[in-house]
Amino acid sequence: MSPILVFTTALMFQTPGPVDLAPAFGNTLLSTYPDGRTARMWLQPGGRFEGRGRRGGLSSGVWRVRNGEVCFSQRRPIPLPGSFCTPIVRGGIGARWTAKAVTGETIQVELVAGR
Q: What is the pTM for the complete model shown?
């Protein structure tokens, strides 16, 4: 087996980490809920995030990577206890996946260009 193939295969099976979030920086994570409303989230490389919920409210807080998941802790408008974690999905602009919202609802998430 060629060394390049071995390296590429090893990368495919590594646990996702902070580097896998890089495509989100400067772009928008667009979440669509079952009722059709959308929420937006913007990640910053330093571990902060901002968001606009599906009802239009603004929030912000911090994120960190733990065990292949990205975990969010809201600080504003009110600090919430604990954190919400979701698997990191690899991909660039246009990547789409199904996830669970903090409410437990199944949502569709897409990485879209720009803010």
A: 0.82
